[in-house]
Amino acid sequence: LAKTTQPISMDSYEGQEVNITCSHNNIATNDYITWYQQFPSQGPRFIIQGYKTKVTNEVASLFIPADRKSSTLSLPRVSLSDTAVYYCLVGDPGGKIIFGKGTRLHILP
Amino acid sequence: DVKVTQSSRYLVKRTGEKVFLECVQDMDHENMFWYRQDPGLGLRLIYFSYDVKMKEKGDIPEGYSVSREKKERFSLILESASTNQTSMYLCASSQPVGVGGYTFGSGTRLTVV
Lengths: 109, 113
Hints:
The complex is a heterodimer. Chain A is built from no helices and 9 strands. Chain A is mainly β.
């Protein structure tokens, strides 16, 4: 299973765009990149998933360069309610995956 | 709204008791997982199952067992609860080719006294 590295914590302000980058140098050919969001005392929630290039949904965008050794989650115009822990995971998206420590995002007013 | 339901939100058990944590999903997912989450240690995989009556050990299976008699239900069993099993337990399910990733339950906060 590919190991991921992401910042331990980040601060931003309401209304800003937030980009969280994850590195995964040993990603395998069949691996997908999936991001989850977790609020305190809740289970993680799926945000977005991609294999290559760019993926966008109503919540976020995911940018994946051609070599797939990193990815960037982009949250447009964040609000206080986006304060959470964000996990980047790499692997078979439906199979066994290992969670890292995630990035603790703190949005300031 | 599709979901994963964990039977209890909070549970308090005594040391040595046999504890059952139940998880039910209504999405007809093949795969189901049990994690525990502890401060500073993140989410750790205990057991998972890719099919009925099938189970695989995760990273920390010691002291636990699982049962999957029906596709929609995956039970985690603490054979003899100990205080170091006090934790938040999270169940998840997914499709085999997991577009959409995991769907998690709300968690069971278990305290062993």
